[in-house]
Amino acid sequence: MPSSYFEDLYESRQDPWGFTDRWYEQRKRALTLAALPARRYRRAFEPGCSLGVFTGELAERCDVLISTDVSQTALRRAAGRVPSNVELRRWGLGEPWPEETFDLVVLSEVGYYLSTADLPDVVGAAVASLEEGGTLVAAHWRHEVADYPQDGDAVHATIQAAPELQRLGGWRDEDVVIEVWEKCAHSVASLARREGLV
């Protein structure tokens, strides 16, 4: 979806999705953090940080957290909320993926903004940026939204299809799906063999 869609939302409303006061958002953040298998991460990446509400909580578990958004307005608001170990960048899914490597990538409420054609490439880039043994966590609203190209279940099915990932666990209810995967060395080796690279 175009960046203007998000910029317009933030310019017209202080908190377009109710991050600060909706029980759904509070509960989802708690469940997502509880699902992370490591107590602490060295370098994490969070696309679509919005106002930085979850970012501030996630940063407590990270040495360095790089958080991005396509909206400059959202990033300005997030800057006043996040701690000093967070680096905010203007960047959007679909742009060239950062060259850094991470031991945690968080895809929270962002995947369904991508088309079914574009999402696999983004998932592939996210997985490629993960260190061996790194964690990918995804959390998405499960209900259909007219503006969004796909729903949360479809997003998670695409992530699950990545052969380098092993699902560790998750949570699914009427409203939200949260799942955690690990990038496994044996899965990478299996993929390389299937592709005839080794």
Describe the structure in brief.
This protein has 198 residues and is of the alpha/beta class.
How would you explain this protein's 3D organization?
- The structure is a single chain.
- The chain has 198 residues and is α/β, with parallel strands linked by helices.
- Strands 3-2-1-4-5-7-6 form a seven-stranded mixed beta sheet, sandwiched between helices.
- Helix 5 links the parallel strand 4 and strand 5.
- It starts with a helix and ends with a helix.
- About 3% of the residues have low confidence.
CA gyration radius, whole angstroms: 16 Å
Number of separate helices: 7
Assembly context of the chains: single chain
Spatial strand order of the main sheet: 3-2-1-4-5-7-6
- What overall geometry do the principal axes of the alpha carbons give? globular
Q: The biggest beta sheet, please? A: 7 strands, mixed
- Care to count the β-strands? 7
Topology:
Blueprint: H1 3-12, H2 23-35, E1 41-46, H3 53-58, E2 62-69, H4 72-79, E3 86-90, E4 102-108, H5 119-129, E5 130-141, H6 152-160, E6 165-172, E7 176-183, H7 185-194
Parallel strand pairs: 1-2, 1-4, 2-3, 4-5
Antiparallel strand pairs: 5-7, 6-7
